[in-house]
Structures are given as C-alpha cells and as structure tokens.
UniProtKB/TrEMBL annotation:
Protein name as catalogued: Uroporphyrin-3 C-methyltransferase
InterPro entries: HemX
Biological source species: Chitiniphilus shinanonensis
Keyword Coiled coil found: yes
Keyword entries, A-Z: Coiled coil
Amino acid sequence: MTQEQDSLSAAFSTPPSRARRFPAPSPALVVAVLALLSSGGLWLYQQQSNDKVQAQLGRQLASYAQKADEAGAREQAATERLRALEREIALLSGKQAEAQGQQATLTALYEALTRNETQRVLAELEQTLSFASQQLQLAGNVSAALVGLESVQDKLAQLDRPELIPVRKAVARDIDKLKSQPYLDVVGISAKLDTLVAGIDKLPLAVDGYRQPQASAPTAPEGHWFKRLALEAWNDLKQLVRIREMDKPEAMLLTPEQSFFLRENVKLRLLDARTALLLRNDGAFRADLSAAGDYLKNYFDGSAPQTRSTAASLKELSEESLAIPLPSLAESLAAVRGARTEAKGVRP
C-alpha cells in the first residue's frame, strides 16, 4: 500500500504536460482514491491511537513497577523487622524459659523447706497431743488437756497449710468436747485435803481425856484447919482412882508412839485420797475417805469441835463424784498422724 501511495503521489505531483491532455478521471477512480485516502487516514489515526495507548501503558507500567519496587522495599523492611522481632521473641522466650526454670527451682526449694517445717511441726503437735491425752486419761486433767489442744490449734493457725485443714477441724471438735464436760474442781478438793492433812496433828485423841473442865473442889472455911486438911486429902485420893465407862477401850490404851503413828496413818489415807482424785479413781477415793472417817470415829475425841469439823469435811468430800466419763483425743491424734504420713510420702 505504501508503494501505491508513492506512485499516486508521484502521479499527482507531476505537473501535467501542456501538450498532453489526460482524460477526465472516472468516478470509480475517484472513489478508489478517496477510499485509499480514507484508509490511510484511518491507519494514521490508529497508529497515533496505538502510540498514545502504548505511551499510557508504558507510563502505567512504569508506575506499577515503581509501586512494585516500593512495595518490595516495604516488604523487605517488614521482613527485616519481622526477623528482628523473631530474634527478640526468641530471646524473650529464652529468658522466660530461664525465669520459669528458676521459679520452678525456687518453688521446689520452698516446698521442700515448707514440707520439712510441716513435718517438724506435726511431730511436735503429735507429742503435745500424746501428753494431753495421757493427762486426760490417766489423771483426768481436763484443764491441762485443753491447754495442750489450744496450743496445737494456735500452731496450726500459724502454719496455715491447706492440707492441714482436717487436722484443725479435728482439734476444734475435741476442744468443744472437753469444754462441754462437767466441771470437777480438782484443785479445790486437793486444797481441802491438804488442809485436813495439816490439821490432823491438832485433833485431840480420845485418850487425851478432852472433857469439859470439872468444877473446883469445895474449900474448907477459914479457921477449920482439920476439916480443910481432910478435904484436901479426900480430893487427892479421888484423883488417884477414877472410874469411867468406856465403849472403846482400845482408844484409851494408845501409847504416845502409837498415837503418832495413828495420826500418820490418817494423813496417809488423806494423801492416798488426793492421789485417787488426781487419777479419777472414784472407788479408791471413797475408800480412803471412809477409812480416815473411821479413824476419827474410833480414836479421836468426837465431842471436840475440831474433830466434828474434820468429820463434816470428810463427809462432804465423799459426796463428790469422780466417775465422770472423759472423751479421748483419738480423733486429733489420728488426724495428725495421718498428716505426718502423707507429708512423708510426698517427694519434693
């Protein structure tokens, strides 16, 4: 098509010869020329449009390439930051693992120390409870048992271990049981017995002849020396021989040495009664008081105020009842021993 356009241009550009005349162009030729010109213009227009599109695409591609480069740079920077964060996270993870290891070690050491302390305290508590149980069962000393249980309760509160809560509950129940027991004044009864023992030496014996003072002998009137002499002689004679009716002759035959041992026997009976009181032995307590009362009745002057007061005190003491059932501390002891066994079985 380019050659045809060149030939046509050459044809049109050649000036017509004056001597030679060409015939008038035919319409078909004109139409063909016009079509050819239109095709050339359309082709030029398309070429220009293509150039514009290509330029625009080039600019867009360059913009996209620039943006891609910028995105790549940003991605690379983000990757670098991500790697830095990963390194920091790895470092922090290492430090955290190290800290957790140290914490686990410290926790294990603390648990070991606490467990050893718990075992030591539980051993002391078991000894205290055993002593309190002995005081309660052998001597019936409720006060001493309560003091021991309360000290155990205080130590458990200071230790404050969750696994010892059952032990604290068992000790609290035993304390409530002891506080609800009927009260026996062991100290007061012991003091009364000690007072009676101290007063035995002051009690008059039947052999001492403790009686109301006799009326003085009549005196002879003044001036009758013979009658006065005869009266004094008669009074002296009556003092030599005295006839009495005795329903307990053995009480009048005591020698001073036997009187001493008699008083000591009464004291021993009262001391045995105090021992039976501490042991809560009701039968022995009443038997010793009854024996001491028999001694007073048979060998001491029953008409003396001291003897009557002592006999009344013995009767009052014999009415005291020592047969009070006492609870045991088996629950607290079992709880403490179970806690010690469990503490020994756990390894740190």
